[in-house]
Amino acid sequence: MFALLVGQLAYLQIVYGGKFVAEVNRTDKTVMSGNVPRGMIYDSKGRLLVGNSTENAITYTKSSSVKSSDIYQIVNRLTKYVSFEKESLSTRDKADYILAAPGKSAKVAKQMPKSQRVDSNGDQLSPSKLYNNEIKYIKEEGIHLNSEELAKASVFKKMSSAYSLSTVFLKDTNLTSKEIAQVSEHLTELPGVNIGTNWNREYPQGKSIASIIGGVSTEKQGIPDDELNQMLAAGYSRNDRVGTSYLEKSYESILSGTKSQREVQIGGNNQIKKSKLVYKGEKGGNLNLTLDSKFQKKVKSILDSTYSAAQADGVTQYSDGAYVVVMNPKTGAIMAMSGIRNDPTTGKTTEDSLGVINRAFVMGSAVKGATVLGALMDGVITPTNNTQADVPIYLPGTAIKKSVYPIGTFSSLNAEMALQVSSNEYMMALAMKEANAKYTPNSYIHMDSDIFSKMRGYFNQFGLGVKTGVDISGETTGLVGSTHNSDGQLKTGSALDLSFGNYDSYTLMEMAQYISTIANGGYRMRPYIVQSIQKTNDNGKKGAIQSVTQPKVLNRVGFTNSELNVVRRGMYAAVHGTNGWTTATKLKDLTPAVAAKTGTAQTFYFNPKDPNNTNPPETINNSLVSFGPYDDPNIAMAVVFPNITSESGNYSQVVAKAIYEYYYKMTGQGKD
């Protein structure tokens, strides 16, 4: 038998020896991708808004089929040279680390009762079931790890949870030069470990528009679950850092660049034997925004200081905050946007520029320009025949519907004067004409059933009640009120409220698009914040322009110039009129002259912590839309202070005036 065995070994050595040696030395080639630096974001003047701070890092690339015991040994070697912090670990994480020690799993298996090692038939359990029982046994016996062991277990978890041939960062902050040197010297005994770099987003100009920019996921968070399949198909790895919101998300494909590709050879022991760079990748592209960071900071400062004044006046106890957006009405380019969000239950305020596109409020009389132009386009009034009686509306079971000024102040008004003094009666009369209403005081008004769709159709042409198309993800539209009661009866009183802006709600971006449409002669422009996309050169500096955003007309509103001029003159009179009820006179001293329309909407504060909301306090939404210079507008803006208890401070006008003064001075249009 011994002779036969020797003969068989000789036979295998002679005949198949080469094959076995080749199998041992066999290598498989595969391609491994690597991340490239994320693109930068600049303002309109070339100032860096968002960049990358680079940090040295200890990385680990996991080989295919690497064993837990191998990782355990690498961890214990690595922690001789690098100090790691302990992180949050589950009991399972700790047990996994303990069982990875050489021979530990077999030792625990022997210690376990036989019932935990075999099934009911006495057969050996599968490796996975046996391992789960080992975990349970370890937990029952109690786990006691000191701080050093917990730190090692944290590193073990990161390395074990890495995907095959993917690279994870084991330490990328507070890495000392000594640690880097020691790891570099011992790389041969640390398979998969290497010295690399990682990056974090930084904001050299401050975080005044951080919410607009959006966020980037951490390596641990990786790809959001709802986009996993789509992004994996596009070549992403599960642990890639990607844009999760707003500009970082909207322009992810630009900012992320193209991954590098490295061809690696995997030996028969499943370790990486050799690697070769076959494609260095392309750095992420840069975004150049329409915002001027200096102007943006000033707009934010103006809004902050005015809101502080409102707090000092004691009118913000139910306030939602304050918001402002400034646009170029000719192109749709966003020049500045800022927001403050206030929590009335705590009084805490936070930066909320994105509230301009994702929060909606009832804006009040600021929308009356669209009401008048809708009536002109509908033909119920004309540029030369638009005088109406200025009388209140009496409906059964409803408070009198009137303007803020006393009944009888005006016997009749034309369209320009109605805008100047902000007549609710005038707007309701327009709605009734459009609806072919039959009105008798203290009786139900009979209207055409399409009155809501008719008025909203005109409003939509200006951008009110529809998405503006802004190039920032997450845009919403305002809320549309119901048109009928539960019994199917048309809500005629609500139709009247809609005519003077006290029913539907709109975002401030919708308001800015609406006033820009009036300012530029009837073109609804798509708002945008990214002016151009620019390559990044190999040296990290900005390269060639790849694309430039062209102004886009979404639709042309169907009014004539003579009809438009009625509203423009009315908005000019709202600033420069001499009647005591003129509404926007705080802006009258501006040079060049501006036009505006103020808004006041009566609303209520509903406390989210009071589910019954019994007797909610009455509040006011104070708003304003404006454009200037009046003769050739190059700036348009919208402002809102929602849910304040008094508008005596004219807060929206204060904000608008200060912005105009700074903008005119900055552009050389104002007084010396």
The number of helical runs is 21
Distance between the termini: 112 Å
Query: Helix- and strand-based class?
Result: alpha+beta
Which range does the strand content fall in? 15-25%
Mean pLDDT: 89
CATH class of the largest domain: Alpha Beta
From the 3D coordinates, which CATH architecture of the largest domain would you assign? 3-Layer(aba) Sandwich
What overall geometry do the principal axes of the alpha carbons give? Answer: elongated
What does the largest sheet look like? 7 strands, mixed
Secondary structure: helix percent: 25-40%
Given as residue ranges, the uncertain stretches (5+ residues, pLDDT < 50) are 22-26
What is the CATH topology descriptor of the largest domain? Beta-lactamase
The number of domains: 3
Per CATH, the superfamily of the largest domain is DD-peptidase/beta-lactamase superfamily
Number of strands: 22
Q: What is the CA-based Rg, rounded? A: 34 Å
